[in-house]
Amino acid sequence: MKIICIGRNYSEHAKELNNPVPEEPVFFIKPDSAILRNNTPFYIPEFTNEVHFEIEIVLKINRPGKHIAEQFAHKYFDEITAGIDFTARDVQQELKHRGLPWEKAKGFDGAAPIGLFVPKSSLTDINALDFRLEVNGEIKQHGNTRDMLFGFDKIIAYITRFVTLKKGDLIYTGTPAGVGPVKAGDRLQGFIANQSMFNFQVK
Ligand code: ZN
């Protein structure tokens, strides 16, 4: 399986990193070795001094698809959760500055913790979904999927112009404003509405 991540999908987050608001979706891929499940602790890697949290809504693809039309895209995922797109921000800034790919900053081991998947049918409206990240019990990021520049269906249609999706693939759909660094000892808890999706420790 693969993990596809959308960048700059909330305008307030694009602004906080001084990135332009994109005219079409920006995406990149993490390897499956980046996944952390079941609230496994995250170990800060030794090559970075600045790992940032980015909470995101994550979709799980339920069937293969290529060139998926936007109006049928909702049939390609039944379950969602929240996850963290961990980013070695210092490494990423250097790579961006040099015009190089982001894999070292985004694809390292443990860079993709995911929560427990819930059926989207159990949620009232996935296009107006509140989600938030608490670090040590304090709210650091708060988003609503209605503020996405590109909604779930548009994202799926766009990605599959280029890349075939397979059953089990994950799509991280972008982070709202408020990203920041983690340190050893932090506890990260992610919520969709008021339901806890993940709760793990940084080491
Ligand atoms: Zn992200």
- The total strand number stands at 15
Question: N-to-C terminal Cα separation, in Å?
Answer: 27 Å
Low-confidence stretches: none
**Derived structural class:** alpha+beta
Number of helices: 4
Could you describe the 3D structure shown?
The protein has 203 residues and is of the alpha+beta class. It is built from four helices and 15 strands. The strands form four sheets. The protein has a six-stranded mixed sheet, with helices on one face. Strands 11-10-14-15 form a four-stranded antiparallel sheet, with no helix packed on it. The radius of gyration is 16 Å and the shape is globular. The structure holds zinc ion. Zinc ion binds at residues 5, 7, 54, 56, 85, 172, 174-175.
Keywords, separated by commas or semicolons:
203 residues; alpha+beta; Fumarylacetoacetate hydrolase, domain 2; six-stranded mixed β-sheet; four-stranded antiparallel β-sheet; 4 helices; globular; binds zinc ion
What is the strand and helix layout of this fold?
Elements: E1 3-7, H1 11-16, E2 26-30, E3 35-36, E4 51-53, E5 55-61, E6 77-84, E7 87-88, H2 89-97, H3 103-106, E8 112-113, E9 118-119, E10 130-135, E11 138-144, H4 152-159, E12 170-172, E13 180-181, E14 187-192, E15 195-201
Parallel strand pairs: 1-12, 3-8
Antiparallel strand pairs: 1-2, 4-7, 4-13, 5-6, 5-12, 6-9, 10-11, 10-14, 14-15
Bound molecules: zinc ion.
